Protein backbone atom coordinates (compact mmCIF):
# COMPACT_ATOMS: atom_id res chain seq x y z
CA UNK A 1 0.00 0.00 0.00
CA UNK A 2 2.83 2.38 0.73
CA UNK A 3 5.35 1.17 -1.84
CA UNK A 4 4.92 4.35 -3.86
CA UNK A 5 6.25 6.50 -1.02
CA UNK A 6 9.77 7.82 -1.55
CA UNK A 7 12.45 6.72 0.91
CA UNK A 8 13.25 9.46 3.42
CA UNK A 9 16.87 10.45 2.92
CA UNK A 10 17.08 11.49 6.58
CA UNK A 11 17.62 14.92 8.09
CA UNK A 12 21.05 16.49 7.49
CA UNK A 13 21.32 17.62 11.13
CA UNK A 14 19.37 15.09 13.23
CA UNK A 15 20.57 12.19 11.04
CA UNK A 16 24.15 13.12 11.78
CA UNK A 17 23.39 13.06 15.52
CA UNK A 18 22.34 9.40 15.19
CA UNK A 19 25.48 8.56 13.21
CA UNK A 20 27.64 10.22 15.85
CA UNK A 21 26.01 8.19 18.63
CA UNK A 22 26.91 4.97 16.77
CA UNK A 23 30.53 5.99 16.17
CA UNK A 24 32.79 3.98 18.53
CA UNK A 25 35.94 6.09 18.11
CA UNK A 26 37.00 7.55 21.49
CA UNK A 27 38.25 10.83 20.00
CA UNK A 28 35.08 11.60 18.00
CA UNK A 29 33.86 15.21 18.23
CA UNK A 30 30.30 16.36 17.61
CA UNK A 31 30.26 19.76 15.91
CA UNK A 32 27.12 18.87 13.93
CA UNK A 33 23.91 19.53 15.81
CA UNK A 34 23.29 22.90 17.46
CA UNK A 35 23.52 21.83 21.08
CA UNK A 36 25.48 23.64 23.78
CA UNK A 37 27.98 21.32 25.47
CA UNK A 38 29.87 22.50 28.54
CA UNK A 39 33.64 22.52 29.03
CA UNK A 40 33.49 18.82 29.96
CA UNK A 41 31.60 17.98 26.76
CA UNK A 42 28.25 17.35 28.51
CA UNK A 43 24.81 18.88 27.94
CA UNK A 44 24.34 20.94 31.12
CA UNK A 45 21.38 20.85 33.45
CA UNK A 46 21.50 24.51 34.49
CA UNK A 47 21.56 24.98 38.29
CA UNK A 48 18.64 27.47 38.08
CA UNK A 49 16.60 24.89 36.15
CA UNK A 50 17.55 22.14 38.59
CA UNK A 51 16.33 24.24 41.50
CA UNK A 52 13.02 24.97 39.75
CA UNK A 53 12.73 21.27 38.89
CA UNK A 54 13.23 20.22 42.53
CA UNK A 55 10.51 22.61 43.65
CA UNK A 56 8.07 21.60 40.95
CA UNK A 57 8.57 17.89 41.45
CA UNK A 58 8.02 18.31 45.20
CA UNK A 59 4.62 19.84 44.41
CA UNK A 60 3.44 16.67 42.61
CA UNK A 61 1.13 18.67 40.33
CA UNK A 62 -1.66 16.72 38.59
CA UNK A 63 -1.30 16.69 34.79
CA UNK A 64 -4.49 18.10 33.33
CA UNK A 65 -4.49 19.56 29.81
CA UNK A 66 -3.01 22.99 29.33
CA UNK A 67 -5.24 25.28 27.26
CA UNK A 68 -4.48 25.41 23.52
CA UNK A 69 -2.39 28.55 24.03
CA UNK A 70 -0.32 27.01 26.85
CA UNK A 71 0.62 28.28 30.31
CA UNK A 72 -0.34 31.88 31.14
CA UNK A 73 2.71 32.45 33.39
CA UNK A 74 5.03 31.14 30.67
CA UNK A 75 3.43 33.28 27.96
CA UNK A 76 3.78 36.41 30.07
CA UNK A 77 7.47 35.65 30.67
CA UNK A 78 8.04 35.15 26.93
CA UNK A 79 6.58 38.55 26.04
CA UNK A 80 8.72 40.32 28.65
CA UNK A 81 11.90 38.63 27.48
CA UNK A 82 11.33 39.29 23.80
CA UNK A 83 9.64 42.66 23.73
CA UNK A 84 10.61 44.35 27.05
CA UNK A 85 8.92 47.78 26.90
CA UNK A 86 8.82 48.12 23.10
CA UNK A 87 5.08 47.47 22.65
CA UNK A 88 3.12 50.73 22.56
CA UNK A 89 -0.26 51.11 24.31
CA UNK A 90 -1.90 51.30 20.87
CA UNK A 91 -0.39 47.94 19.80
CA UNK A 92 -0.92 44.35 20.87
CA UNK A 93 0.90 41.02 21.23
CA UNK A 94 -0.74 37.62 21.06
CA UNK A 95 1.47 34.78 22.27
CA UNK A 96 1.11 31.04 22.54
CA UNK A 97 3.37 28.34 23.98
CA UNK A 98 4.49 25.93 21.26
CA UNK A 99 6.26 22.61 20.82
CA UNK A 100 9.74 24.10 20.48
CA UNK A 101 10.74 26.76 17.98
CA UNK A 102 9.89 24.35 15.16
CA UNK A 103 6.30 24.11 16.45
CA UNK A 104 6.11 27.91 16.49
CA UNK A 105 7.33 28.10 12.90
CA UNK A 106 4.81 25.50 11.78
CA UNK A 107 1.82 27.04 13.56
CA UNK A 108 2.88 30.45 12.23
CA UNK A 109 3.24 29.04 8.72
CA UNK A 110 -0.23 27.46 8.88
CA UNK A 111 -1.71 30.73 10.06
CA UNK A 112 0.01 32.69 7.28
CA UNK A 113 -1.18 30.18 4.70
CA UNK A 114 -4.76 30.69 5.91
CA UNK A 115 -4.37 34.48 5.82
CA UNK A 116 -2.54 34.73 2.47
CA UNK A 117 -2.84 31.48 0.52
CA UNK A 118 -1.09 32.95 -2.53
CA UNK A 119 1.87 34.62 -0.81
CA UNK A 120 5.39 33.18 -1.15
CA UNK A 121 8.09 33.19 1.51
CA UNK A 122 11.69 34.40 1.27
CA UNK A 123 14.37 32.93 3.51
CA UNK A 124 18.06 33.83 3.75
CA UNK A 125 20.51 32.05 1.47
CA UNK A 126 21.55 29.91 3.27
CA UNK A 127 19.20 29.28 6.18
CA UNK A 128 18.47 26.54 8.74
CA UNK A 129 17.63 23.53 6.60
CA UNK A 130 14.34 22.86 8.40
CA UNK A 131 12.97 26.30 7.48
CA UNK A 132 12.60 24.94 3.96
CA UNK A 133 10.92 21.76 5.19
CA UNK A 134 8.50 23.53 7.51
CA UNK A 135 7.37 26.19 5.04
CA UNK A 136 7.20 23.82 2.10
CA UNK A 137 5.30 21.41 4.34
CA UNK A 138 2.77 24.18 5.03
CA UNK A 139 2.30 24.59 1.26
CA UNK A 140 4.49 27.64 0.58
CA UNK A 141 6.78 28.28 -2.34
CA UNK A 142 10.11 29.11 -0.67
CA UNK A 143 12.47 31.63 -2.30
CA UNK A 144 15.85 32.87 -1.09
CA UNK A 145 17.28 36.34 -0.59
CA UNK A 146 21.06 36.91 -0.74
CA UNK A 147 22.62 36.69 2.70
CA UNK A 148 26.09 35.14 2.91
CA UNK A 149 28.53 36.56 0.39
CA UNK A 150 30.72 33.66 -0.76
CA UNK A 151 33.72 35.89 -1.56
CA UNK A 152 33.75 38.37 1.32
CA UNK A 153 32.33 35.71 3.68
CA UNK A 154 30.31 38.51 5.32
CA UNK A 155 26.68 39.63 5.12
CA UNK A 156 25.67 40.50 1.56
CA UNK A 157 24.00 43.80 2.43
CA UNK A 158 23.68 45.12 -1.13
CA UNK A 159 22.26 41.83 -2.38
CA UNK A 160 19.70 41.53 0.41
CA UNK A 161 18.59 45.16 0.14
CA UNK A 162 18.17 44.96 -3.64
CA UNK A 163 16.11 41.78 -3.28
CA UNK A 164 13.92 43.25 -0.54
CA UNK A 165 13.24 46.32 -2.71
CA UNK A 166 11.87 44.17 -5.51
CA UNK A 167 9.78 41.72 -3.46
CA UNK A 168 6.20 41.25 -4.63
CA UNK A 169 3.96 43.19 -2.24
CA UNK A 170 2.71 41.09 0.66
CA UNK A 171 5.59 38.61 0.56
CA UNK A 172 6.56 36.81 3.74
CA UNK A 173 10.19 37.27 4.81
CA UNK A 174 11.98 35.22 7.43
CA UNK A 175 14.71 37.01 9.41
CA UNK A 176 17.13 35.82 12.12
CA UNK A 177 17.41 38.59 14.76
CA UNK A 178 20.69 37.20 16.16
CA UNK A 179 23.18 34.32 15.84
CA UNK A 180 22.22 33.44 12.28
CA UNK A 181 21.85 29.69 11.69
CA UNK A 182 23.91 28.39 9.87
CA UNK A 183 26.40 31.20 9.13
CA UNK A 184 26.80 33.21 12.35
CA UNK A 185 26.94 36.26 10.04
CA UNK A 186 24.74 39.11 11.22
CA UNK A 187 23.72 42.49 9.74
CA UNK A 188 24.65 45.50 11.88
CA UNK A 189 21.92 47.75 13.28
CA UNK A 190 22.85 50.37 10.67
CA UNK A 191 22.21 47.73 8.00
CA UNK A 192 18.95 46.48 9.53
CA UNK A 193 17.35 49.94 9.40
CA UNK A 194 17.25 50.30 5.58
CA UNK A 195 16.40 46.60 5.28
CA UNK A 196 13.34 47.13 7.49
CA UNK A 197 12.44 50.30 5.55
CA UNK A 198 12.46 48.25 2.35
CA UNK A 199 10.34 45.48 3.89
CA UNK A 200 7.81 48.01 5.16
CA UNK A 201 7.68 49.71 1.74
CA UNK A 202 6.89 46.34 0.15
CA UNK A 203 4.28 45.60 2.85
CA UNK A 204 6.13 42.40 3.63
CA UNK A 205 5.00 40.15 6.47
CA UNK A 206 8.06 39.68 8.64
CA UNK A 207 8.61 36.41 10.50
CA UNK A 208 11.47 36.57 13.01
CA UNK A 209 13.06 33.33 14.18
CA UNK A 210 15.01 33.82 17.41
CA UNK A 211 16.29 30.59 18.93
CA UNK A 212 19.50 31.92 20.54
CA UNK A 213 18.55 35.07 22.47
CA UNK A 214 21.47 35.67 24.83
CA UNK A 215 24.04 33.58 22.96
CA UNK A 216 25.18 36.52 20.81
CA UNK A 217 25.78 39.83 22.61
CA UNK A 218 23.29 39.50 25.50
CA UNK A 219 19.56 39.18 26.15
CA UNK A 220 18.64 42.76 25.26
CA UNK A 221 21.08 43.31 22.40
CA UNK A 222 20.03 40.05 20.74
CA UNK A 223 16.34 41.05 20.85
CA UNK A 224 17.00 44.49 19.33
CA UNK A 225 15.43 43.60 15.97
CA UNK A 226 12.25 42.28 17.61
CA UNK A 227 11.93 45.50 19.59
CA UNK A 228 12.77 47.73 16.63
CA UNK A 229 10.01 46.10 14.56
CA UNK A 230 7.62 46.64 17.50
CA UNK A 231 8.67 50.29 17.92
CA UNK A 232 7.94 50.81 14.22
CA UNK A 233 4.42 49.46 14.74
CA UNK A 234 5.01 46.66 12.21
CA UNK A 235 2.75 43.61 12.23
CA UNK A 236 4.99 40.56 12.51
CA UNK A 237 5.45 37.10 13.94
CA UNK A 238 8.20 35.78 16.22
CA UNK A 239 9.16 32.14 16.72
CA UNK A 240 11.28 31.70 19.84
CA UNK A 241 12.76 28.80 21.75
CA UNK A 242 14.31 27.96 25.12
CA UNK A 243 15.97 24.76 23.90
CA UNK A 244 19.45 26.25 23.88
CA UNK A 245 19.26 29.11 26.37
CA UNK A 246 17.74 26.92 29.11
CA UNK A 247 19.39 23.72 27.89
CA UNK A 248 15.93 22.11 27.66
CA UNK A 249 16.15 20.53 24.20
CA UNK A 250 13.99 17.48 24.82
CA UNK A 251 11.28 19.42 26.66
CA UNK A 252 10.34 21.26 23.44
CA UNK A 253 9.71 24.70 24.93
CA UNK A 254 8.97 27.39 22.35
CA UNK A 255 6.58 30.24 21.65
CA UNK A 256 4.86 31.99 18.77
CA UNK A 257 4.16 35.70 19.23
CA UNK A 258 2.33 38.07 16.91
CA UNK A 259 2.74 41.81 17.25
CA UNK A 260 -0.30 43.64 15.91
CA UNK A 261 -0.90 47.24 14.89
CA UNK A 262 -3.92 47.54 17.21
CA UNK A 263 -4.39 46.38 20.81
CA UNK A 264 -7.14 43.98 19.73
CA UNK A 265 -5.40 40.64 19.22
CA UNK A 266 -8.46 38.39 19.55
CA UNK A 267 -8.65 37.50 15.86
CA UNK A 268 -5.02 36.39 15.47
CA UNK A 269 -4.97 34.78 18.92
CA UNK A 270 -8.00 32.71 17.92
CA UNK A 271 -6.29 31.65 14.69
CA UNK A 272 -3.17 30.63 16.59
CA UNK A 273 -5.26 28.46 18.92
CA UNK A 274 -7.16 26.96 15.99
CA UNK A 275 -3.94 25.83 14.32
CA UNK A 276 -2.60 24.41 17.60
CA UNK A 277 -5.80 22.40 18.03
CA UNK A 278 -5.53 21.05 14.50
CA UNK A 279 -1.87 20.13 14.89
CA UNK A 280 -1.50 18.80 18.43
CA UNK A 281 -4.36 20.18 20.59
CA UNK A 282 -2.29 21.71 23.35
CA UNK A 283 1.38 21.93 24.37
CA UNK A 284 3.15 19.84 27.06
CA UNK A 285 3.45 21.18 30.62
CA UNK A 286 6.70 20.45 32.32
CA UNK A 287 9.37 22.31 30.34
CA UNK A 288 7.28 25.47 30.17
CA UNK A 289 6.61 25.32 33.91
CA UNK A 290 10.38 25.19 34.52
CA UNK A 291 10.95 28.26 32.34
CA UNK A 292 8.03 30.14 33.90
CA UNK A 293 9.32 29.33 37.38
CA UNK A 294 12.86 30.54 36.63
CA UNK A 295 11.85 33.68 34.74
CA UNK A 296 9.09 34.55 37.21
CA UNK A 297 11.33 34.40 40.29
CA UNK A 298 13.66 37.41 40.59
CA UNK A 299 16.48 35.43 42.22
CA UNK A 300 16.32 32.44 39.86
CA UNK A 301 15.99 34.78 36.90
CA UNK A 302 19.21 36.59 37.88
CA UNK A 303 20.94 33.26 38.43
CA UNK A 304 19.84 32.01 35.02
CA UNK A 305 21.10 35.20 33.37
CA UNK A 306 24.49 34.49 34.95
CA UNK A 307 24.45 30.92 33.67
CA UNK A 308 23.48 32.15 30.23
CA UNK A 309 26.36 34.64 30.29
CA UNK A 310 28.76 31.81 31.18
CA UNK A 311 27.56 29.78 28.19
CA UNK A 312 27.91 32.81 25.91
CA UNK A 313 31.40 33.55 27.19
CA UNK A 314 32.51 29.94 26.74
CA UNK A 315 31.29 30.00 23.14
CA UNK A 316 33.13 33.27 22.50
CA UNK A 317 36.32 31.92 24.08
CA UNK A 318 36.15 28.71 22.01
CA UNK A 319 35.63 30.70 18.80
CA UNK A 320 38.67 32.84 19.59
CA UNK A 321 40.76 29.76 20.47
CA UNK A 322 39.75 28.03 17.24
CA UNK A 323 40.66 31.07 15.13
CA UNK A 324 44.00 31.50 16.93
CA UNK A 325 44.80 27.80 16.63
CA UNK A 326 43.97 27.71 12.92
CA UNK A 327 45.97 30.89 12.24
CA UNK A 328 49.01 29.43 14.00
CA UNK A 329 48.69 26.08 12.20
CA UNK A 330 47.88 27.49 8.75
CA UNK A 331 49.45 30.96 8.59
CA UNK A 332 48.88 31.29 4.84
CA UNK A 333 45.08 31.07 5.27
CA UNK A 334 42.75 33.85 6.33
CA UNK A 335 40.45 32.96 9.23
CA UNK A 336 39.51 36.48 10.26
CA UNK A 337 35.94 36.01 8.92
CA UNK A 338 35.36 33.26 11.51
CA UNK A 339 36.18 35.67 14.33
CA UNK A 340 33.42 38.06 13.17
CA UNK A 341 30.66 35.45 13.20
CA UNK A 342 28.30 35.39 16.17
CA UNK A 343 26.62 32.74 18.30
CA UNK A 344 26.83 29.00 18.35
CA UNK A 345 27.65 28.40 14.71
CA UNK A 346 30.63 29.01 12.48
CA UNK A 347 30.46 28.78 8.72
CA UNK A 348 33.92 27.46 7.96
CA UNK A 349 33.94 27.48 4.18
CA UNK A 350 34.82 23.76 4.15
CA UNK A 351 33.30 21.88 1.22
CA UNK A 352 31.01 18.85 1.55
CA UNK A 353 33.93 16.67 0.40
CA UNK A 354 36.21 18.10 3.10
CA UNK A 355 33.46 17.61 5.71
CA UNK A 356 33.15 13.98 4.64
CA UNK A 357 36.89 13.44 5.18
CA UNK A 358 36.71 15.20 8.55
CA UNK A 359 34.15 12.63 9.65
CA UNK A 360 35.57 9.52 8.01
CA UNK A 361 39.24 10.06 8.84
CA UNK A 362 39.19 12.20 11.97
CA UNK A 363 35.84 11.50 13.67
CA UNK A 364 34.97 15.22 13.56
CA UNK A 365 31.30 15.69 12.68
CA UNK A 366 30.14 18.86 10.89
CA UNK A 367 27.21 19.68 8.62
CA UNK A 368 27.78 19.19 4.87
CA UNK A 369 27.53 22.92 4.28
CA UNK A 370 30.64 23.47 6.40
CA UNK A 371 28.65 24.64 9.43
CA UNK A 372 30.16 23.71 12.78
CA UNK A 373 28.75 24.14 16.27
CA UNK A 374 31.37 26.06 18.24
CA UNK A 375 29.71 24.96 21.49
CA UNK A 376 30.90 21.39 20.81
CA UNK A 377 34.52 22.54 21.23
CA UNK A 378 36.41 22.33 24.52
CA UNK A 379 40.01 22.40 25.75
CA UNK A 380 40.30 18.63 25.34
CA UNK A 381 39.15 18.34 21.73
CA UNK A 382 40.29 21.68 20.29
CA UNK A 383 43.77 20.47 19.33
CA UNK A 384 42.37 17.42 17.55
CA UNK A 385 39.83 19.55 15.66
CA UNK A 386 42.50 22.05 14.55
CA UNK A 387 44.76 19.23 13.32
CA UNK A 388 41.82 17.64 11.48
CA UNK A 389 40.93 20.96 9.83
CA UNK A 390 44.54 21.51 8.85
CA UNK A 391 44.75 18.01 7.36
CA UNK A 392 41.67 18.45 5.14
CA UNK A 393 42.55 22.01 4.16
CA UNK A 394 46.06 21.12 3.03
CA UNK A 395 45.23 17.75 1.41
CA UNK A 396 46.19 17.66 -2.28
C1 LIG B 1 20.50 22.93 14.68
O1 LIG B 1 20.40 23.79 13.80
O2 LIG B 1 21.43 22.12 14.71
C2 LIG B 1 19.51 22.89 15.80
O3 LIG B 1 18.59 23.93 15.67
C3 LIG B 1 18.88 21.55 15.96
C4 LIG B 1 17.91 21.20 14.86
O4 LIG B 1 16.77 20.86 15.19
O5 LIG B 1 18.27 21.24 13.68
Automatic annotation (TrEMBL):
Tell me the PROSITE patterns matching this sequence: AA_TRANSFER_CLASS_1
Q: Which Pfam families match?
A: Aminotran_1_2 (PF00155)
Q: Which family does it belong to?
A: Belongs to the class-I pyridoxal-phosphate-dependent aminotransferase family.
The protein's enzyme class: transferase
- What is this protein's record name? Aminotransferase
| Keywords for the protein's UniProt record, in alphabetical order | Aminotransferase, Pyridoxal phosphate, Transferase
Q: Does the keyword Transferase apply?
A: yes
* Record InterPro entries: Aminotransferase_I/II_large, Asp_trans, NHTrfase_class1_PyrdxlP-BS, PyrdxlP-dep_Trfase, PyrdxlP-dep_Trfase_major, PyrdxlP-dep_Trfase_small
Q: Which CDD domains match?
A: AAT_like (cd00609)
Amino acid sequence: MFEHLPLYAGDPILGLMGEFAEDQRPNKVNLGVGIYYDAAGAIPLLPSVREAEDELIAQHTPRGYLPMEGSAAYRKAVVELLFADSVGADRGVAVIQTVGGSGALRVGADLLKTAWPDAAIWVSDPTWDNHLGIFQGAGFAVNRYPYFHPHTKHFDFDGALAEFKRLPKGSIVLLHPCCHNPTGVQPTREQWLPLLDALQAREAVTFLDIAYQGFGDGLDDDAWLVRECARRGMEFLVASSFSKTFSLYGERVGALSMHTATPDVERVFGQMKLHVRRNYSSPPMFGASLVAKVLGDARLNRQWQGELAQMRERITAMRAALVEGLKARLPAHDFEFLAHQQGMFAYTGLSAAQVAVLKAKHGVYAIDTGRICIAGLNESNLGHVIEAFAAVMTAA
